[in-house]
Amino acid sequence: MQHRRDFFRQITCGAASAAIPALCAGGTARIGLGFSTHGLKSYPADEAVKIIAGIGYDSVEIAVVPGWTEPSKCSAQERRKLRSAIGQYHLAVPNLFDRIDILGDATEHKAHLETIRVNAQFGQDINAGIGGVTPCIGTRLGGNTKDFEAMKNLMADRLHEWAEVAREMRTVVAIKGHPPMIMDTSARTLWMVQKVNSPWLRVEYDYSHFQTGGEELGKTLDLLLPYIVVIALQDNKKRADPPGWALTLPGDGDIDHAEYYRRLVKFGYNGHTIVWINARLFNNNPKFDPVAVAKHCYATLAPIMEKAGARRPTKSK
């Protein structure tokens, strides 16, 4: 006889699987190339969708941080308009970009849980269901790396509550390792997602953050690929004077994107890789042309994907 607890666990995992990219064997995986509206701040989201699709991208990440498309300020009519554009231009929506801190007092924690609910509802409202993709909520966790050991159990407890809200809303929360913040390495990211142990809490992977911390691409992917639901693409170039790293567009820095995609193909990653343009590249930069940047990144990355054997999602005509 099946126990009631086991029954509900199966129901929960089944619902989560609709939001989590599957791992496909035998070359059946599809890897999408997307662009985040974070890099098109000067355009309304529905216009950004048209631009992104016109370049050839498969998906769009909607930035929901203050100053972009804020769910609390987006009316029902605006949500319908955005959903219509997403459907018209046939773009998957794998992720909503936000910044939700894990620390703070009890009142702040309660507010963060509500943010997850609001974002999840927004994602459901604007998603056109292209490719059967359900948007995750992607976020780094804030804080400072020096506090990880002292705060990791509190973080895990709070993330468990995040995952419960995610389960209620049928929307996966994807956490990102991001130095010098509190969860800054691939090992800490792995520890946290395994500690919480929920299908509703997974990983948004951005190797550029681990790159600056001296971690190898292959090692971080080996650790985290079973938990990755969406990938953000940024890049850095080693700088001699002054010593450090210079932020670049994806494909223009030191990350070997050919090796990156070969590893994703070999593993069977079935999901989206999203070009993410850091605000440091366009804030106070009058020469920044967001459309030209989006075109440049596509022209750089699409051939790399093809050469690596990545099969892109099929678009309906």
Estimated radius of gyration: 19 Å
Structural class: alpha/beta
Low-confidence stretches: 1-14
User: How many H/I helical runs?
Assistant: 10
CATH homologous superfamily name?
Answer: Divalent-metal-dependent TIM barrel enzymes
Overall number of strands: 10
Strand order of the largest sheet: 1-2-3-4-5-6-7-10
Task: State the shape.
Answer: globular
Number of domains: 1
Q: Helix amount, in percent?
A: 40-55%
What top-tier CATH class fits best?
Answer: Alpha Beta
Pattern of helices and strands = HEHEHEHEHEHEHHEEEHEH
The CATH architecture is Alpha-Beta Barrel
Protein model, in words:
The chain has 10 helices and 10 strands. The strands form 2 sheets. It has an 8-stranded parallel β-barrel with strand order 1-2-3-4-5-6-7-10, surrounded by 5 helices. The protein has a single domain, classed as TIM Barrel (Alpha-Beta Barrel). Helices cover 43% and strands 15% of the residues. Strand 5, helix 6 and strand 6 form a beta-alpha-beta unit. It is globular, with a radius of gyration of 19 Å. By secondary structure, the chain is an alpha/beta fold. The termini are far apart.
Short description:
This protein has 317 residues and is α/β, with parallel strands linked by helices.
What is the topology?
Layout: H1 4-17, E1 31-36, H2 45-55, E2 59-63, H3 76-88, E3 95-97, H4 106-126, E4 136-140, H5 148-169, E5 173-176, H6 186-196, E6 201-205, H7 207-212, H8 217-224, E7 228-233, E8 235-239, E9 244-248, H9 257-267, E10 271-275, H10 290-308
Helix pairs in contact: 2-3, 4-5, 5-6, 9-10
